[in-house]
Write a structure and sequence with these properties.
Layout: E1 7-14, E2 17-22, H1 23-45, H2 57-77, H3 85-100, H4 113-135, H5 137-141, H6 151-186, H7 197-227
Antiparallel strand pairs: 1-2
Length: 228
Amino acid sequence: MDFTNHKLWSLFTINGHTAYVTQSILGTWIVMAVLIIFTLVVRSKMKNFKETPKPGSLQNVIELAVESMDNLAGTSLGEGLHWLGAYFFGVFAYILLCNYSGLFKLRPPTADLATTLALALNTFALIHVLGIVRRKGGYFKDYLKPIFLFLPMNIVGELSRPLSLSFRLFGNILGGTIMLDLLYVSLPALFRIALPTPIHVYLDIFVGALQAYIFCVLSMTFINEKAE
């Protein structure tokens, strides 16, 4: 797969500037469609969920996933912001599926800085909106600590957070994608089936899940620092 030119087809041209559908956009649409379909299926099945000692397999999986994110949100955000667990459940599922899309020969949308930066900017907005709403004057006083001379440094530190969040996720996923692409190019055709499998397991499955988890935990930690 050629990752240097990932434009698929053009949509329209305005004043000489062409809007393209890229591999990243196509991957995003596919991930969104999978999540929406899965959500609709789970929603239709929820009416059959019961409080029994032996719930069904789907109910077990859904309850485990929801309880795990609730526990993580309660630990990282505290009781006052526990409700954000539902939002981060969606973020985690989206990032995880984006990372895993590479297993199906798609370009992971998270290997595109535009995707990771958009996610990081959502976190950035939550950090400061919740900080202002919940702490009011105390939020602004933090920028003058330990003394007012630190105001520029504190502002730069806050602006660096979305950059660090976005580049961490983007760099890890893009790096794994490039490594796998180089591996497939360098190996003889006979060895391209079996030999890359362990590397796929590590880079796509393990690292993909780890990076989704790290993004959510760091986002929750930053929000808690400003809003609690």
